[in-house]
Amino acid sequence: MKFSAALTFLAAPLAVMAVPAASPSPSPSPSFSPSPSPSSKVDAAAAGTVDVKYDPAYDNPDLDLNTVSCSDGPNGLVTKGYKTAGSLPSFPRVGAAFSVSWNSPNCGKCYQLTYNGKSIYVTAIDQATTGFNIAQEALDELTGGQAVQLGHVQATYAEAAPANCGF
């Protein structure tokens, strides 16, 4: 019985992800209503509430962008001339986003994250399973220096203009 429940749990996100592919619409950007669940993949232009945590790896200005999902494909950041995380104009406000995979058109996308009335803009450079996984310094900025104490927060996100991330 536990195995069956696990399969049902694992299959649910796949069903959500399969909806755009099954759509007969020729539009390259599927439009469907985002699920309020922070673990669901949704249209990158959508807004909602997600889990935001930190990973100190994104605090390293020497982080080689060839090691992240937004690396060397046509949509990659290396292809656009950025070599390290520190070379990005929004550094250290960088990290992984649920909307990114290798060579995703969402590579380098700017997102506004808001927690308790405070907003920051973050550049998506890597893939997160759910929500956002950002530099500790960025989460400290968002939480008033409480990244380590809190570990993660529920924040709202929205796609933002590239200029908000320095592009």
List keywords for this structure.
single chain; 167 residues; alpha/beta; Barwin-like endoglucanases; 6 strands; 23% strand
Question: What would your notes on this structure say?
Answer:
By secondary structure, the chain is an alpha/beta fold. It has one domain (47-165): RlpA-like domain (Barwin-like endoglucanases, Beta Barrel), CATH 2.40.40. Helices cover 20% and strands 23% of the residues. The chain contains 3 helices and 6 strands. Strands 1-5-2-4-3-6 form a 6-stranded mixed beta barrel. The protein is globular and about 35 Å long.
List the helices and strands and how they pair.
Elements: H1 2-22, E1 48-54, E2 94-97, E3 110-115, E4 118-127, E5 132-134, H2 136-143, H3 147-150, E6 152-160
In short:
The protein has helices at 2-22, 136-143, 147-150; strands at 48-54, 94-97, 110-115, 118-127, 132-134, 152-160. It is of the alpha/beta class and 167 residues long.
